[in-house]
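Colleagues,

For the teaching module next term, I've prepared a clean inverse folding example: a structure given as tokens, and then the sequence designed for it. I'd like students to try predicting residues themselves before seeing the answer, so please don't circulate the second half yet.
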């Protein structure tokens, strides 16, 4: 603290004039009342000017309370509707008083420098002569001194973190059911894992597995049983982010295996092929409990590889043909991993 005082004294010596200040203090019983906070600040700055009743000034408010065997102090500095706070705590109230008065003096000195660099020179105003503190009350370290914990606080004008914003990398697991237009409204149970990244729009990367219930297709030559197994991929971003509701959009894709089995009257055969589709969707999520969401997703995919499945080597009958654009809707339960 002594080194800080020396540096500060050298710094504020260039200020032309101390800005007007109003000082108030509220100290708990047992705190040293002499010298006063005004005298301590004056000792640090070398000069101080008290504000007139109707003059715009720096408002400096000291408050020290006793809680849990500690002295907790706060100094609030206000000017032009903008306020900032500094805090300190210690077992010794004298240490807290010394720390807070030093913080206030630094802030007033910086404001004096700013004013002297912005305003034109004016005739000097009469101020009090410097009066150094008595040796017994200076903030010099003593044998029974206690460490002071200083906690700078953000000013009132500093922006706060947005509600619902992800502040670190988060993982989640989910499960749900999808109703897909490419599968003749066959339900597909789905499970997935996802990572949410602490960036703009809270981007999400999701990987899932799904397998449909068995469906059937009929023709004049027989009946076919069909089943889908799918690896699902999605990249999402939330445009609207609140504590209990999120709304965003996704780029989606899937790599699937379509299995079909012919049954009588044709000779029974089973075969399968892979397909790839890409698309986009909109999603909305509601928070049911902390870390637990219900999520809906509605969108469409377009097949990239072949759309038709034949009973090879036969081209008739056609086993399956997917639409050009495949709509889908899904609902999921998502639980964040701690």
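(Answer key — instructors only)
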């Amino acid at each position: 603290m002594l080194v800080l005082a020396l540096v500060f004294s050298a710094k504020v010596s260039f200020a032309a004039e101390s800005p007007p200040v109003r000082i108030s203090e509220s100290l708990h019983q047992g705190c040293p009342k002499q010298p006063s906070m005004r005298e301590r600040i004056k000792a640090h700055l070398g000069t101080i000017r008290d504000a007139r009743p109707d003059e715009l000034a720096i408002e400096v408010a000291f408050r020290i309370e006793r809680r849990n065997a500690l002295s907790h102090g706060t100094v609030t500095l206000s000017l032009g509707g903008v306020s900032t706070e500094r805090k300190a705590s210690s077992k010794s109230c004298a240490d807290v008083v010394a720390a807070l008065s030093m913080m206030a003096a630094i802030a007033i000195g910086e404001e004096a420098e700013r004013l002297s660099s912005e305003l034109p020179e004016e005739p000097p105003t009469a101020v009090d002569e410097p009066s150094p503190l008595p040796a017994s009350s200076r903030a010099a370290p003593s044998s029974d001194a206690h460490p002071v914990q200083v906690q700078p606080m953000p000013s009132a004008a500093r922006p706060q973190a947005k509600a619902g914003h992800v502040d670190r990398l988060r993982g989640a697991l989910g499960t749900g059911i999808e109703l897909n237009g490419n599968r003749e409204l066959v339900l597909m149970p789905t499970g997935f894992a996802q990572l949410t990244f602490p960036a703009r729009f809270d981007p999400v990367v999701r990987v899932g597995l799904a397998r449909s219930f068995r469906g059937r297709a009929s023709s004049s030559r027989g009946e076919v049983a069909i089943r889908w197994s799918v690896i699902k991929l999605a990249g999402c971003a939330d445009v609207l982010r609140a504590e209990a509701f999120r709304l965003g959009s996704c780029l989606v894709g899937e790599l699937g295996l379509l299995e079909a089995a012919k049954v009588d009257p044709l000779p029974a055969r089973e075969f399968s092929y892979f397909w790839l589709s890409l698309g986009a969707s909109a999603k909305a999520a509601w928070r049911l409990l902390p870390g637990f969401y219900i999520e809906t997703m509605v969108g469409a995919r377009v097949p990239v590889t072949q759309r038709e499945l034949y009973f090879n080597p036969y081209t008739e009958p056609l086993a399956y043909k997917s639409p050009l654009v495949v709509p889908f809707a899904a609902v999921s339960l998502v639980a964040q991993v701690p």
